[in-house]
Amino acid sequence: MKVTMIGAGYVGLVSGACFADFGHEVICVDHDPAKLDALNSGRMPIYEPGLDALVAGNSRQGRLVFSGDLASAVASADVVFIAVGTPSRRGDGYADLSYVEQAAREIARSMDGFTVVVTKSTVPVGTGDDVERIIRAENPEADFAVVSNPEFLREGSAIDDFKRPDRIVIGTTDERARKVMQEIYRPLFLNAAPVLFTERRTAELTKYAGNAFLAMKVTFINEIADLCERVGANVQDVARGIGMDGRIGPKFLHAGPGYGGSCFPKDTLALVKTAQDAESPVRLIETTVAINDQRKRAMARKVVRACGGSVRGKTIGVLGLTFKQNTDDMREAPSLNIIQVLQDNGAKIQAYDPEGMDQAAQLLDNVTFCKTAYETAKDAHALVIVTEWDAFRSLDLERLRETMESPVLVDLRNIYNPAQVEAAGFTYESIGRGSNGWMVDTTSEAAE
Q1: What's the pLDDT band for 435 if we cut at 50, 70, 90?
Q2: Which residues are catalytic?
Q3: Is 64 helix (H, G, I), strand (E, B) or coil?
Q4: Checking phi first, is residue 434 left (phi over 0); if not, alpha (psi -120 to 50) or beta?
Q5: By residue range, what is the domain housing residue 24?
Q6: Is 307 helix (H, G, I), strand (E, B) or coil?
Q7: Are residues 249 and 130 in the same domain?
Q8: pLDDT for the residue 445
């Protein structure tokens, strides 16, 4: 089938490349000439493992094309995916739908024959209705159907998520559109990928509800980690213990500095706003958003405590800047808040990230960017692991200790064994493993 993907960002580029790999003819449209030049030269605008090879292979075969000509791309398409950004709107937190609305208007002016218009972007409930109204107003004679098909891609493993999905959610009640979507995803149907056909608004809400639930799960284990530190328990064992329950599961139960990225922060906030407008507030999610915002700053205070209560005039090394490993995405990354608070307290920051430093340099001031983890540790009064890159999991602790001003390691991802780090001569702080707070004495009151 002929597929047009409007937007060559993270979702559009990965989805377009994967559809092309299924054998469809795909045109990825973007208004940014610099991005198009880079893509046509084989340079990826984002870091995603395996994406460069996937794009290159399908481009060579002629199944994947990048263009700035939206009109001709839409006119020739059987299916047009809207995969543009929906960032949080400044000031009120609502999803900014201006790019979606503009795409709908441009699609309406260019479509030729029956066309399925699919919202792939994460959008609030009812956006499909708005897209339909816009197209109808712009082109009353148009023959089309609007479908919701939310993405469920994790940065760092997006290609595998697309080709081996937990589920495919398709929101439409139009039979012609249903058949087109079945054909688009036919390679995955053959692999027995779970497919849920539902009503359009239900599909839109499913995306937000899924991300909000996972964000709550992350926030829950982070609060349990804080409790573990106070009572002398081990959050990793707690997570294993509850994760063995099939009703809970082990995923997203890794304590850390709080969630970030392109989805959880903006989607939870957008769902809160949608619920408020519907006069059906989602209190759990409201609390999740507040706790996560506070947690990032609390991690900086943890570093200050590890340095004896003050970082003024001290050098702090930061390992990992992106919100998670295997991406260069700095959106809502915990490192931003942590570094800002440390700088506000008088610290000098030197940092390293395997992929995210170009993006970080646009967001952080007065930070010395280093070329290696060991350069980051040089003369530092403390070294802080913020992102769990594999490259940080087996550092030479003796070499680190020898190059640092004082051997303090603050591990915000729990990737090291406390006993091994302490045996190497470090003062070691981690998340929720009981050694940082006090142990409750339950014997005396019980005896009385």
Answers
A1: low
A2: 263
A3: strand
A4: left
A5: 2-198
A6: coil
A7: no
A8: 33
